[in-house]
Amino acid sequence: MSSEKSKLDEMREKLFMTPKNAFSDEFSTEGCFEFCEDYKAYLDIGKTERLCVKETIRLAEAKGFVPYVRGMNLQPGDKIYKNNRGKSITLAVIGEKSLSCGVNIAAAHIDSPRIDLKQSPLYESEGLCLFKTHYYGGIKKYQWPAIPLELHGIVALKSGDIVEVSVGNDPSDPIFVITDLLPHLGKDQMAKTAANVIPGESLNILCGSRPIEGASEKDKDAVKLNIMNILNEKYGICEEDFLSAELCVVPAFNARDLGFDRSMIGAYGHDDRVCAYPSLRALLDADRAEKTAICVLADKEEIGSEGVSGMKSAFFDTFIEDICEASGTTLRECFENSTCLSTDVTVALDPNYPDVCEKKNSAFINSGVALCKYTGSRGKSGASDASAELIARLRALFDENGVLWQMAALGKVDQGGGGTVAMYIAERNIDTIDAGVPVLSMHSPFETVAKADVFMTYKAIKAFFEKF
Ligand code: MN
Ligand code: MN
Predict the structure, then answer these.
(1) How far is the CA of 443 from the centre of ligand 2 (A)?
(2) Which ligand sits nearest to residue 113's alpha carbon?
(3) CB-based contacts of 163: which residues, under 8 Å, 6+ apart?
């Protein structure tokens, strides 16, 4: 009886898939915690896409990357980048093989759901000064009141000067808040559905309460005048300058270790800096690149990859075409031989909300980088649906290089869905698949990931750049 049982066990072991954990003996997480310290620093500095691009350039230049200028002579091993209007960036390490053999691309996005100031934002009401806002990306509006907020962005002046604004990240800075209703008077509010609890036009940012010196009771907008005066003294701006400003409000808390075992990170903006940073680091750390390795950090993914800095923009094609020309090949030949990991987050199965996921096809915390063959919704609509052949090649690559990976779907069939930049890259005739870190509380002001999954995503992209 017992020997028969062990024979069945043997068969199971051989024939069945078994779930794996990053902390089993099979995998090395050496360097994982150090890597995540660097990632946390990147998060704290890069709370908007503009700040991410700035920090990315600083890190890349320290590793010998230089801005690409059209017509530049390129040799294997050259490290270049192209800054797209300060909001997205593409970096490349020129490979030993010709670009006609294709390039290996890791494409992440560096914009995150947040709250933007309207173009004419400042007003006074009931003795308080506030900013009108329009939220950016898919947020649950009820999660944003009554948390500390900071402000980042730029004001572009008619003179051509750019004024940078950054308030709240330094511990000595003031912060901001969206107020919420006290429960004592919340009878009507609490009866609303979650989507309607906080109307979009109520996401107003409290930013002052003190009237300007010398104002009397009957002076109109004395608090607003005081705030505008402070802004004028600090930044040299007047109210009209808001019309040509981009000012973003994000949570005013930095990345923190989460759990007694410090195995996780809680932070704002993991989606998708948790894939952007590993993609960037994999490129900076790549020992060698047979094929040219490309890291794309895109903007506007959270609103559909639109616009001049989004993945649909010809900025990407133009840059790749430029470097193709430099090596005597065409863009179409390069693209048809290229492969892309669309490095973006996916949902991790949450024990608080297990019903929205189907367990057999879900990503789990600590089970490594998650591949998604398809995203989309209702019959895979809007998915680029990666090929079985590509997945097989990646299975082999990851298994040979000690990368823990898992296959995942974004929730149960017909439960909802989502998309990434994958479809916009695939339609350029590039084999593309989603690969990234599983996240808890995605799109909330404070998202959670596991350090081991961040590290495995880095190892996966590094192996892809070096050996695929
Ligand atoms: Mn994302
Ligand atoms: Mn997202």
Answers:
(1) 6
(2) 2
(3) 154, 155, 156, 157, 235, 236, 237
CA separation for the pair 379, 210 (Å, rounded):
56
The rounded Å distance from CA 102 to ligand 1 centre is 25
pTM metric for this prediction: 0.96
Expressed in angstroms and rounded, the spacing between residue 420 Cα and the centre of ligand 1 is: 6
Interval between CA 112 and ligand 2 midpoint (Å): 7
Among all bound ligands, the one having the nearest atom to the CA of 344 is: 1
Q: Give the distance between the most distant pair of CA atoms in the chain.
A: 95
Rounded alpha-carbon distances, angstroms, from residue 204 to 20, 35, 122, 138, 226: 46, 37, 10, 18, 18
Between CA 46 and CA 274 the distance in angstroms is 11
Taking a 5 Å cut-off on Cβ, the residues next to ion ligand 2 are: 271
Q: How do the pLDDT tens digits run along the chain, 468 residues long?
A: 556 679 999 999 899 998 899 999 888 889 999 999 999 999 999 999 999 999 999 999 999 999 999 999 999 999 999 999 999 999 999 999 999 999 999 999 999 999 999 999 999 999 999 999 999 999 999 999 999 999 999 999 999 999 999 999 999 999 999 999 999 999 999 999 999 999 999 999 999 999 999 999 889 999 999 999 999 999 999 999 999 999 999 999 999 999 999 999 999 999 999 999 999 999 999 877 899 999 999 999 999 999 999 999 999 999 999 999 988 999 999 999 999 999 999 999 999 999 999 999 999 999 999 999 998 888 899 889 999 999 999 999 999 999 999 999 989 999 988 889 999 999 999 999 999 999 999 999 999 999 999 999 999 999 999 999
What is the residue extent of each domain of the chain? 10-112+268-467, 114-251
CATH placement of domain 10-112+268-467: 3.40.630.10
d(CA 368, CA 20): 9
**CATH fold label, 114-251:** Aminopeptidase i, Domain 2 (2.30.250)
